Task: inverse folding
């Protein structure tokens, strides 16, 4: 098993006629993701060997797609996501950076029940060896039993590569993004990994700013929590400056590196102080257990 | 992006929020004329989009023309967040009976906007009890009853409570119409039966500027602006200058932070947070190298890109081209990984550079380069 995506995932790419979307789609097909078609309003036809539809509903009707990767610029992104929700798609991955906060707030309120949106500002999801929905470099990942949740795309590549070369494969790696309003939240991603029989332990890659890391602490408080290793980027970051991600700013005292790592350690997470320590801690754990 | 006080007040006034009278002055003559029109005493307030002006000596009062001239000179000399003001707002400076805090803010915790209210406004807001929070309903309407309750519980006169309620309604209209993430009125002064905004701060969501052309235009025409905002408009780079000697050209916020952490651990400090992932083109990297070349504190630079969507052979090609053209002549260390790294290494090798496959090795190398530069000097 894995979470969110596997061999059965049938993917649409919205905005498929864009140049970047085509590069990404070809990479996905090469990885083995079942890409069943694309959507590009007013451009129905064929593109890179795939059927292209004007509307998501038409695409779902003729391809049985159950997931969509939204490669639409911020101006049209909310509309494209609305259309996917209305068409009954159950998994929406929106990698884009720059979605207006008010759109994110409105969309977040539409995400209920078994509907999942991953993003904005996410590299996507990969269940190694099964399926990839996003644009992370495939060579960094190996199949295995570690579930990985990351706020940052680049950091998830770096760490996954270290895991893979240390023999620590991954069930699924999900980039939840660094925005303040997210689709899939830290708490929800933890729930999914908790319920996944093939995930034996979880790695959480956080950063300064926001309070997501405290959801990890809450999860660890339950008796049957899976073991968690955590890393928080930004130990050297100055307070009060926004560093790239919308939420990567130390606002209150609880948002600092020291407060988060202390809280995580206290809740029973193993906290890696450096990148190097991440596979070391995980290997030590697997020897013990 | 944040609006300065004057722009903030003009914006909320449009939606029906009462503000005190004031005018902009750039010279002694303008300031004295402004003060005369309003009547003494006046406040002389530096206009720049930053908080903490009071503490930084950027707000002074004046009771006559000579005090206006003195205050103007002092206030225009303030430095906050890398900015120096070039204008002041001259406004009436009557002490209110009491000061209230009223704001509309985006709250990640509540998943949307909230109204914040405290009867103890002004500089005391940070020390006193936290403000009362009234979440805006999902349909973006104000919970008027709950807000009114909060103001009555603070023992405000009913007429003041009613005025504050219409002020909150106006703020909510302004917040929605302008894609704001914060509108803060602090303080709102109570003068007998009258209430009036004495200071205001508006922050518009950077991601909404494509549909907030008017506000974006006003802000971009204003001066000074935060260096980060200017750089983002100019090159789409996320650039925050810091104090260290190690230049860092990076991609992705998380890896940039992680690289900064490693630099700090090695005993050096990063010269900047500089994330090029929004513009990983020759132009973007050219601008990044120019910033670092022009900064005298930078001794050596680490170029660290872990490419997913960004193909690192393209990165190598662009950067080697720029370095060959002399865009940056201090020592440089490469750490490229991810998509097309083998091709990238071939390009680096033919330009005479080696690539570090680990970020730890790269940080060690760039720190040595910086120390060597220092030893020569």
Result:
């Amino acid at each position: 098993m894995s979470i969110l995506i596997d061999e059965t995932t049938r993917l649409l790419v919205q905005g498929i006629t864009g140049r970047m979307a085509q590069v990404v789609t070809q990479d996905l097909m090469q990885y083995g993701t079942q890409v069943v078609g694309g959507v590009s309003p007013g451009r129905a036809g064929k593109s890179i060997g795939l059927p292209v539809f004007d509307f998501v509903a038409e695409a779902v009707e003729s391809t049985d797609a159950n997931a969509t990767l939204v490669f639409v610029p911020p101006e049209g992104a909310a509309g494209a996501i609305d259309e996917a929700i209305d068409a009954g798609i159950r998994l929406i991955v929106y990698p884009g950076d720059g979605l207006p906060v008010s759109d994110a707030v409105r969309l977040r309120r539409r995400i209920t029940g078994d509907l999942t949106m991953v993003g904005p500002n996410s590299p996507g999801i990969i269940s190694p060896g099964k399926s990839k929905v996003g644009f992370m470099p495939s060579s960094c990942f190996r199949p295995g039993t570690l579930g990985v949740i990351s706020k940052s795309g680049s950091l998830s590549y770096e760490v996954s590569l270290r895991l893979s070369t240390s023999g620590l494969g991954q069930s699924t790696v999900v980039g939840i993004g660094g925005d303040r309003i997210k689709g899939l939240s830290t708490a929800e991603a933890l729930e999914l990994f908790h319920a996944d029989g093939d995930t034996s332990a979880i790695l959480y890659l956080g950063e300064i700013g926001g309070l997501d890391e405290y959801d990890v602490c809450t999860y660890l408080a339950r008796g049957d929590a899976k073991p968690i290793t955590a890393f928080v980027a930004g130990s050297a970051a100055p307070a009060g400056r926004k560093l790239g991600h919308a939420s990567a700013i130390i606002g209150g005292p609880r948002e600092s590196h020291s407060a988060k790592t202390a809280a995580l350690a206290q809740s029973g997470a193993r906290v890696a102080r450096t990148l190097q320590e991440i596979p070391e801690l995980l290997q030590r754990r697997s020897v013990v257990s | 992006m944040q609006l300065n006080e004057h722009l903030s007040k003009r914006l909320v006034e449009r939606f029906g929020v009462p503000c005190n009278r004031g005018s902009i002055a750039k010279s002694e003559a303008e300031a004295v004329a402004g003060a005369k029109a309003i009547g003494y005493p006046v406040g002389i307030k530096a206009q720049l989009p930053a908080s903490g002006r009071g503490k930084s000596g950027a707000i002074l009062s004046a009771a006559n023309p000579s005090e206006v001239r003195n205050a103007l000179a002092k206030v225009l000399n303030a430095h906050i967040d890398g900015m120096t003001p070039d204008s002041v707002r001259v406004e009436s400076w009557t002490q209110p009976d009491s000061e209230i805090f009223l704001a509309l803010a985006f709250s990640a915790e509540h998943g949307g906007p909230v109204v914040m209210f405290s009867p103890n406004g002004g500089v005391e807001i940070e020390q006193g009890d936290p403000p009362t929070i009234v979440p805006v309903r999902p349909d973006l309407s104000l919970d008027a009853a709950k807000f009114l309750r909060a103001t009555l519980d603070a023992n405000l006169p009913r007429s003041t409570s009613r005025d504050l309620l219409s002020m909150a309604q106006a703020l909510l209209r302004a917040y929605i119409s302008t894609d704001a993430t914060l509108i803060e009125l602090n303080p709102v002064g109570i003068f007998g039966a009258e209430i009036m905004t004495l200071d205001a701060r508006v922050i518009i969501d950077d991601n909404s500027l494509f549909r907030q052309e008017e506000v974006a235009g006003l802000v971009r025409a204003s001066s000074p602006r935060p260096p980060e905002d200017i750089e983002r408009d100019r090159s789409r780079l996320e650039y925050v200058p810091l104090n260290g000697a190690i230049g860092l050209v990076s991609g992705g916020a998380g890896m940039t932070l992680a690289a900064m952490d490693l630099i700090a651990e090695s005993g050096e400090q990063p010269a900047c947070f500089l994330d090029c992932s929004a513009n990983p083109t020759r132009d973007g990297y050219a601008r990044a190298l120019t910033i670092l070349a022009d900064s005298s504190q930078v001794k050596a630079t680490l170029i660290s890109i872990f490419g997913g969507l960004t193909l690192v052979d393209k990165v190598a090609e662009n950067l080697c081209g720029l370095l060959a053209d002399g865009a940056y002549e201090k020592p440089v260390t490469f750490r490229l990984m991810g998509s097309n790294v083998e091709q990238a290494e071939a390009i680096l090798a033919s330009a005479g550079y080696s690539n570090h496959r680990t970020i730890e090795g790269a940080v060690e190398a760039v720190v040595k380069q910086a120390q060597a530069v220092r030893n020569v000097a």
